[in-house]
Amino acid sequence: MENNTRRQVTILVFSGLTDNKELIPFLFVLFLCIYVVTIVGNIGIIALVYNTSRLHSPMYYFLSFLSFVDVFYSSVITPKMFSDLISEKKSSMQTICAFSLQFCGSNLIDHFYCDIPPLLTLSCSDTFHCTMVTIFMVGLCTITSLLSILLSYLLIFASVLRMRSSESRKKAFSTCSSHLMCASVFYVTVFFTYLRPPSSVFTSQDKVAAIFYAVVTPMLNPLAYTLRNQEWILSIIVLKNGFQIFLGNSSNLLLWEICYKEILCLYSTIVNEYYCQKNLRIVTWIVDSKEVKA
Fold first, then answer.
1. CA-CA distance, 141 to 214, in Å (whole number)?
2. Which of 73, 140, 165, 234 matches a 20 to 30 Å C-alpha distance to 255?
3. Do 65 and 84 touch, CB atoms closer than 8 A?
4. Tens digit of pLDDT for each residue in 156-201?
5. C-alpha dist (Å) from residue 192 to 129, 205, 209, 260
6. Whole-prediction pTM
7. DSSP-derived 3-state class of residue 108
8. Which is nearest to 90 in space by CA: 75, 80, 104, 76?
């Protein structure tokens, strides 16, 4: 009878990333930079694999698919987070989309996008089966993929240890460490969010974990998989040379270089003039002060 008299909630509202007005500008600029690097880096990988014949192999096709997933995943979550940061009106969703759960009481989701754990904390239904299904599905997918990654790296490390050159071993271990760092950030935060006993409170630590696996990891992937790979660097150089040929002959490139130097010279002139005027005002102020004292 008590459950029937509760107010039935039909619309859920997201609280957003933070309510601290002083942090909002900093967070907006920070995550905007992260999002731009994510989009440019991952789309750059896709374009590079598509346009470079030397990268037409299964490994690079797989990395391009990973970049596509990162772009899609990040673009679903991050723009909504930006909107909630700068807007007074927060995003909302219909409860009919949230499984078959019933919601009564508070309609505020303490999160910046729709995720299962914060929804379960608001529901007045029995969430035991939903929690068990979530743990089972996430555990099956993540543990299976994690075991395959660990097995792959064990084979890689075994091959690296058989290398005769210590410099080659050091380079290989350095490259693998950046890959493992990205994977560790993703899996640790996913395990922390989904594979633990259900709680009635969704804390700020859960938001931080969600930021790492939903926003930061898609940015780290293109950096980790390209900066230490000679094939990527060589392909970028070849593509850059092709772009220079597209711009025109050497005289046009010389013209571009002259314009660039003129812009730098103009910028330095403006800056120097500004500081000269500033120093002149300071000297004038000191002289006037001495005259007044005299």
1. 17
2. 234
3. no
4. 888 888 877 777 777 777 777 778 888 888 899 888 888 877 665 6
5. 20, 10, 7, 50
6. 0.71
7. strand
8. 80
Residue 192 CA to residue 138 CA, distance in Å, equals: 11
Helix (H, G, I), strand (E, B) or coil at 123: strand
* Strand runs labelled E in the chain: 11-14, 92-94, 108-109
Give 220-277 pLDDT, tens digit per residue.
888 887 776 666 666 666 666 555 544 444 445 555 555 555 555 544 554 455 445 5
What gap in Å lies between CA 266 and CA 282, rounded to an integer?
24
Which of 70, 79, 32 is CA-nearest to residue 222? 70
Alpha carbons 217 and 251: distance in angstroms, whole number? 43
Q: How confident is the model at residue 202 (pLDDT cuts 50, 70, 90)?
A: low
**Measured distance CA(199)–CA(202) in Å, rounded:** 7
